[in-house]
Amino acid sequence: MKHSRTAIWASTSVLAVTGVVALVLLLMPGATTKPEQPAGSDVDLAADLGQFAERMSAESGYSKPSPAEREAIKYGVELALNGKLVDANEALAPVGYRLSKRVDTATKRTFYEVSESADRSRGWGRILIDEAATARLGVEVPHPKADLGSEQLGVGLFRQVPGSVLVIAGAHRRAAPDKQADMAHTNESVFETVHELLVQRKVPVMQLHGFRNETAPDSDVVVSAGPHLHSPYAEQTAQRLKDAGLSVCLSWVTGCEGLEATTNVQAKWVAEHGGDFVHVEVSQDTRFTAEARDRVVSALARQAAGR
After folding, report:
1. Which residues contact 286 (CB under 8 A, 6 or more apart)?
2. Which residues 6+ apart lie within 8 Å of 263 measured at CB?
3. pLDDT score for 306
């Protein structure tokens, strides 16, 4: 009987210790299998996106996402916009995307970034969500590197407008055949899916492009609403740019051949479903002159703020 009691006591002790160890392991960081919001990091957003664009190749770097992958990322972005950050990360993880908390060192503002995991590179793009306010402006950059400096226009506007969402393509527009990587001319992309989500949420969208000086030599900026050319939102935006002392080509008045966004898929989607969208083309000289570029960004920010 003495030996039986000893054996029972030993077994009970082992079970107790095992239970404690299991509890400790369960409570340790990383013990859960549910994806968590990654730790934040500081970054100079202008430098970061400049380097991101510079690394793009016109020959490769894009693979077409499946409908299921696009929908998963759309759902993850929607959760992030609704403030459900951990749930967003959980939704994004199966398709190789993640949500990261970051701080722009230039403005000290916090934002959340939805982007590919470190070990993935399919060219699907990045979505940056300002933490400061409910989404109030979509800023789209469909042709980084191809439209040199357009990503810096996007960064500048993102920085000036609290509550903005910056959507930047992840590959050069010629990185894949049949315009698959041209975000303004394919509706089977993560870029387009996020665009539709923003418009469905009644968020106005400004899409930023760049053109060579000789394409419209008398204009600093070309403004269009897309297929219909004119809309009240486009007209208001154009007036803000004019008030900033910029020469503006109004596509619905004089025509601006090749720069009117009549085949732009995001503009078409808004024309069919409703919403506020403006296509803004900025000349090379204006993009590469800091003072002129800042005037463009400030004018667009005033339009976004309604002042």
Report:
1. 220, 221, 246, 292, 293, 296
2. 185
3. 87
